[in-house]
């Protein structure tokens, strides 16, 4: 059992000291509120700074530099994008309106010239041909009957001619026989012409029957199948969406070429018969040689571009219409020289003079304008030869604005 002194000491330990100040929980809570408010203000300031930084981005136009000094190889003077197109492509349709009976093509099928692609229901064409054949037969029968009558009338006229000379018959009888003979001759000519017209109508009916067969106009590959058996097809659009205007579309793969649109500011670099190097977007490692066919002598005022036709020197089944392609226009190959030019070709509009030196702005991957000091070796047409200060493929600013400075944020101008 515990002593009284021990119990008294235990009771003293349990006593609450009123003089010691209790901790105030509200002060720590206020500290957290202040920290949160400061963080919110900091985030708002960062967001405002980011938006302000984006709004201050200077809009510029750029162009890539092109490497020089490739020895005997051809250097690219211009790059452009385009598409593979077919110069010979046709959506085949029937010459007459009719119901499709059979479709003999499928997408990807190779067809030859005059190969049957589809047939229409020939019931009406067969009826028209049968009627024309019957009319021809009737006209020929009538001509035969009149010819027989003419033979009899001619013999009768000759006999009466002899009798009238012997004064055995009257002159009027002879004249009547001659008139009948001449009338039958005229009827025979008319019936023969009617028979010829009936024969022509039969040939037209045969053409109508042949028009129920749809044939390929040239050899190619079917890229679209537009109709199905039982549908109505017509060479003219009729009946709203219930009438087809074509059977299928075929493409002559040997007529494939590339069409590119070149900015009119750089069209002077392109010449007919100029060598090119095409790269399909689907096969970036495959470089296809070619040459410029023609420069279409008109410009698109809405896009400020000129269309250029490019021939591909390689025929390959991997090349199909509407493929995207990148075309590099090349300089003519030059013989190997002892000393080759070094550096890059840059647009003259990107080079300016500042502080007694030739300068240019280069746009980095972070969209920052970087001021470079250049060493210009000379002019190359509308461009300049920069021997030092620029690397191939870098984007330089064209006609840099006066407010553009080193390290400034830039953005590309929309075409």
Automatic annotation (TrEMBL):
Domain CusB-like beta-barrel: residue ranges: 258-330
Gene Ontology terms, MF aspect: efflux transmembrane transporter activity
Transmembrane region(s): 31-52
Top-level taxon: Bacteria
Domain Multidrug resistance protein MdtA-like C-terminal permuted SH3, residue spans: 346-399
Any one cellular-component term (Gene Ontology): efflux pump complex
Record keywords, A-Z: Membrane, Transmembrane, Transmembrane helix
UniProt name for this protein: RND family efflux transporter, MFP subunit
Species whose genome carries this gene: Pseudoxanthomonas wuyuanensis
């Amino acid at each position: 059992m515990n002593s009284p002194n021990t119990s008294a000491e235990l009771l003293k330990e349990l006593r609450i000291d009123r003089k010691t100040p209790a901790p105030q929980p509200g002060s720590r809570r206020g500290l957290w509120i202040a920290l949160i408010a400061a963080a919110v203000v900091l985030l708002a300031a960062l967001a405002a700074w980011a938006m302000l930084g984006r709004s201050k981005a200077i809009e510029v136009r750029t162009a890539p530099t092109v490497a020089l000094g490739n020895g005997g190889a051809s250097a690219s003077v211009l790059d452009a994008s385009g598409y593979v197109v077919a110069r010979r492509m046709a959506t085949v349709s029937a010459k007459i309106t009719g119901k499709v009976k059979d479709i003999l093509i499928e997408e990807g099928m190779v067809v030859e010239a005059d190969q049957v692609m589809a047939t229409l229901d020939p019931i009406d064409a067969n009826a028209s041909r049968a009627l024309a054949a019957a009319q021809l037969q009737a006209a020929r029968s009538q001509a035969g009957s009149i010819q027989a009558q003419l033979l009899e009338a001619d013999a009768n006229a000759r006999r009466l001619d002899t009798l009238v000379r012997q004064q055995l018959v009257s002159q009027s009888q002879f004249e009547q026989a001659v008139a009948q003979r001449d009338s039958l001759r005229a009827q025979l000519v008319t019936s023969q012409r009617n028979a010829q017209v009936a024969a022509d109508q039969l040939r037209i009916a045969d053409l109508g029957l042949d028009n129920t067969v749809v044939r390929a106009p040239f050899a190619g590959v079917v890229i679209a199948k537009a109709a199905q058996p039982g549908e109505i097809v017509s060479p003219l659009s009729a009946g709203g969406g219930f009438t087809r205007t074509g059977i299928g579309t075929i493409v002559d793969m040997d007529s494939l070429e590339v069409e590119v649109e070149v900015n009119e500011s750089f069209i002077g670099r392109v010449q007919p018969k100029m060598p090119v190097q095409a790269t399909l977007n689907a096969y970036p490692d495959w470089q296809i040689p070619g040459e410029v066919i023609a420069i279409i002598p008109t410009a698109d005022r809405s896009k400020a571009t000129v269309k250029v036709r490019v021939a591909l020197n390689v025929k390959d089944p991997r090349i199909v219409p509407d493929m995207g392609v990148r075309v590099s226009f090349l300089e003519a190959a030059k013989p190997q020289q002892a000393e080759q030019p070094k550096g890059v070709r840059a647009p003259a509009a990107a080079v300016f003079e500042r502080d007694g030196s030739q300068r240019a702005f280069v746009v980095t991957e972070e969209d920052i304008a970087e001021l470079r000091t250049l060493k210009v070796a000379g002019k190359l047409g509308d461009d300049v030869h920069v021997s030092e200060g620029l690397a191939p493929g870098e984007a330089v600013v064209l006609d840099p604005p006066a407010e553009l400075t080193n390290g400034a944020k830039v953005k590309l101008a929309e075409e």
